[in-house]
Structures are given as structure tokens and as C-alpha cells.
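User: Please fill in residues for this 471-position structure.
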């Protein structure tokens, strides 16, 4: 009977969000050939929706499950540093994107270098990262949470298939407008339910954190920790600038606002929320350590299953499912936007049916993500794995953006060479030669060496190769 109550509330709330989203979007007129309409919601999002969609895209199962799975205060630095990344996006980068009327973040590179090949290369790097890293991780962590919370007998992969199908429906039929509306509704629920879980978790241990090792309660990480203190001075800020400032999955929300001012208001609201998020994504994991010991990524699902009454756990499962779907369908929509706008319209058919092409791309990415879910079931810390693998494309891409904004007369060829160099260098660090340095340091080294390599290549190119830009 208890499980029936859980599932009933889960399905009622999930269906309610879908119904509200449908009624909000059903009478909106769409142009199937207008990429801004489909991928940027026609540029009509308010700051409230921008903030809500941004947070739900970011705070999904891989964040909640992964960060709580670390079971230590130290990982709160990801949220604290994210606030700085958001400020940089709001203060400096968003006005530039709007100045160039960009549909995708990569479009800025084409405008700066007058080279659509750079835009295509960076888009391909983003899409590879989404297909082989972000999408399968989102499906895996969301499915793991549902399995551990409800004690389901279904395999993680089977649950992932269900998430993938529903997420693809949102992305394909609703576009960014539907995603943003559902995000905002689920975001309110997630914040409320997340705080309730944290309160009940602390109540379960009588608000007493004694007995937990001091290394799990400190913000100063030693050399062997997940985030050594000195990495905060090197790669951490670059990771945040890339993620919040250039990553299409995130920046797309701000690009879809009614104006620069509206986008900035939404981003500053998100800054405030990010500074409060550790209460939801860190504290319960620490409590779980005191209750169960070191159980890694299973921690949050087990804790929630134990402390919430059946009717409330059903509601929480609904908002968690919404968080998973938010990140998944947002990523699908961004991948479709990158391929359609940066590659298909530039190289195949400028007047293509945007919705049709986006649908095909979303389906392909969905299948790839589902097939890769079992691979991500292996590591102890899904958060650490995700951050480490992201360096394969994040730092080379960030180097291209920095060169575009900080230097004049950098040629397109030099940027392309830099992108290849950066990917190869980080792959060398990660898979073949492992220097005695933390991966966050290696990301900073990759970025700086890639910028240096790009500038050096540009200096030895024949003068006619370099085309001035207005950076």
C-alpha cells in the first residue's frame, strides 16, 4: 500500500507538470525554419524562467547524487566557485553574445574569426562531450537514485531507457520553451523538497555531526583530497568560466531571454541560489556518512528513502525525475541546436526544416546515451569522473574563446591547430601519461599551453593567413 501511494503521487505530480507545460505551449505559433524560435524560445523568456531553467539544468541527478555521494563538505566548492562563473557570464559575456545576435555560443567564434570551420570544430567537441559524457551520466545517476530510493528490481539501464524516452519527447516536441517552463515548475519543487530532506536528515541525527571525521567537514582539502586547496587557485575558476560562460547547455537559457538586462537579472538570481544549494547537495551526504558509512553514490537515494514518509517521498521522486529530465532534454536541445545551426545550415542546407533536423539529432544522441549508461556504473565517484573527462573538450574550447576575446589578429588556422593540440594534450595527461598533479591543475596547464601554442602558431604563419578581428 505504501509503495502504491508513492507511485500514485509521483505520477500525478509528473503528469501535472507535463499538462501545465503543454497548455502553456500549445497555442504558441512556431516557424519550423526559424532556429531562434525552436532553440531559443523565440527570445521571450523572463528572468524568472531563465533563473529557474538554468538551475534545473545544472542541478540534476548527477549533481545531487554525485555531490552527496562524495559525503564531504569539500565538494561545496563546486557551488561556491560556480557563483563567480555566473557573475562573469552576466557581467561580461552575455552582452557580447547579444551584441553579435548569437543563436549558439559557438556562433561568436565564427563572427570573430570570420571562419565557420572553427564554429563547426567547437560544436563537434561540444556534441562529443554531450553524447559520450554528460547525457549518459545524467541518465545513470537519475536511474541510480530511483532504484536506490524505491528499492526497484528493474536494472539501472531499464530505468534509464524510460527517462530517455520521456526526455526526448520534451526536447523534440516542445523545444526550449517547453523545457524552460517545465524546468521552472520542477525547480520550485526541488528547492522546497531538497530543503525538507536536509532538515529531516539533520533531525535524524539530532543535529549532531560529532563522530564524523574532520576531513569530511572541512573546506580546506589536503593533497590527497578530491579538491586540494591549491586547485582553487588554478583550474577551478577556468572550469567555471567554461561551464557557465561558453557551454551551450547552460548559456542557451540566458541567450533566450527577452533582453540583456532580463538575462542578467536571471543570472544574478541564479548566483544567490547557487550559494544556497550546498544545503541540498552536500549536507545530506554528510549525514548519510554518519548513518550508513561510506556508501558513495547510493547515499542520497537511501537517505531519502529512509527519512521521508511515503507520500512525501513520492513527491520528491517527482521533482528528482523532473531534474533528470531537465538536464537530459536540455542537453538534447543544445546538441540539436549546435548541429542544426553550426553544421547543417552552414554546410548542408541553409533552409532546412529546423525541427525535423533537430528531431533526428535528438534521437541519435538519445540512443548513444542509453547504450553508454552501463559504462558509467563502474567508478566510485561519478562527480570526479565527470569533471575529469570534461577536460577533454572544456579547456581547448575555452582557449579558443579566450583567444577570440583577448587577442587581435589571430588566424582561424591557428585556432584550429590549438583545438587539436589542446584535446591531444589533455588526452595524453588523462589516458597515457599521468603526471603527479591533480586533474584540476592539469586542466589549467592544458588551457595555458593551448593558448600559448595557438599564439605561437599564429606568429609563424604567413602574414596573409591571419585575419584581423574586432576583439
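Assistant: Residues filled in for all 471 positions:
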Amino acid at each position: 500500500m505504501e509503495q502504491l501511494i508513492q507511485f500514485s503521487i509521483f505520477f500525478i505530480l509528473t503528469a501535472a507538470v507535463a499538462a501545465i507545460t503543454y497548455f502553456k505551449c500549445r497555442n504558441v505559433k512556431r516557424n519550423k525554419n526559424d532556429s531562434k524560435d525552436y532553440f531559443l524560445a523565440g527570445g521571450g523568456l523572463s528572468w524568472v524562467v531563465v533563473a529557474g531553467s538554468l538551475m534545473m539544468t545544472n542541478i540534476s541527478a548527477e549533481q545531487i547524487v554525485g555531490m552527496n555521494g562524495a559525503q564531504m563538505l569539500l565538494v561545496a566548492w563546486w557551488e561556491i566557485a560556480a557563483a563567480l562563473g555566473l557573475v562573469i557570464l552576466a557581467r561580461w559575456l552575455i552582452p557580447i553574445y547579444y551584441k553579435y545576435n548569437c543563436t549558439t555560443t559557438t556562433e561568436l567564434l565564427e563572427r570573430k574569426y570570420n571562419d565557420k570551420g572553427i564554429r563547426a570544430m567547437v560544436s563537434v567537441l561540444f556534441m562529443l562531450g554531450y553524447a559520450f559524457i554528460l547525457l549518459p551520466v545524467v541518465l545513470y545517476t537519475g536511474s541510480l537514485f530511483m532504484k536506490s530510493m524505491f528499492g526497484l528490481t528493474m536494472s539501472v539501464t531499464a530505468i534509464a531507457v524510460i527517462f530517455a524516452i520521456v526526455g526526448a519527447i520534451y526536447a523534440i516536441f516542445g523545444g526550449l520553451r517547453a523545457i524552460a517552463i517545465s524546468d521552472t515548475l520542477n525547480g520550485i519543487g526541488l528547492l522546497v523538497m531538497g530543503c525538507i530532506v536536509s532538515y529531516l536528515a539533520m533531525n535524524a541525527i539530532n543535529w549532531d555531526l560529532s563522530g564524523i571525521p574532520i576531513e569530511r567537514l572541512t573546506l580546506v582539502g589536503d593533497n590527497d583530497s578530491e579538491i586540494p586547496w591549491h586547485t582553487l587557485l588554478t583550474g577551478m575558476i577556468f572550469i567555471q568560466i567554461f561551464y557557465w560562460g561558453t557551454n551551450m547547455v547552460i548559456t542557451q537559457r540566458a541567450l533566450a531571454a527577452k533582453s540583456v538586462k532580463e538575462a542578467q537579472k536571471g543570472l544574478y538570481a541564479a548566483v544567490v541560489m547557487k550559494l544556497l544549494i550546498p544545503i541540498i547537495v552536500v549536507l545530506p551526504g554528510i549525514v548519510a556518512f554518519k548513518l550508513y558509512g561510506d556508501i558513495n553514490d547510493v547515499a542520497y537515494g537511501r537517505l531519502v528513502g529512509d527519512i521521508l514518509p511515503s507520500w512525501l517521498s513520492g513527491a520528491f521522486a517527482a521533482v528528482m525525475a523532473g531534474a533528470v529530465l531537465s538536464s537530459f532534454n536540455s542537453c538534447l536541445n543544445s546538441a540539436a541546436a549546435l548541429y542544426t545551426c553550426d553544421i547543417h545550415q552552414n554546410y548542408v542546407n541553409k533552409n532546412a526544416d529546423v525541427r525535423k533536423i533537430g528531431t533526428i539529432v535528438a534521437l541519435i544522441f538519445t540512443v548513444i546515451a542509453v547504450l553508454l549508461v552501463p559504462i558509467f556504473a563502474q567508478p566510485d565517484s561519478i562527480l570526479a569522473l565527470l569533471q575529469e573527462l570534461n577536460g577533454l573538450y572544456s579547456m581547448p574550447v575555452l582557449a579558443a574563446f579566450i583567444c577570440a576575446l583577448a587577442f587581435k589578429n589571430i588566424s582561424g588556422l591557428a585556432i584550429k591547430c590549438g583545438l587539436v593540440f589542446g584535446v591531444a594534450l589533455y588526452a595524453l595527461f588523462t589516458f597515457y601519461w599521468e603526471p603527479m598533479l591533480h586533474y584540476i591543475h592539469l586542466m589549467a596547464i592544458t588551457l595555458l599551453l593551448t593558448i600559448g601554442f595557438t599564439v605561437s602558431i599564429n606568429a609563424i604563419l604567413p602574414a596573409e593567413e591571419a585575419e584581423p578581428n574586432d576583439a
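For context: The CA atoms of residues 411 and 463 lie 10 Å apart.
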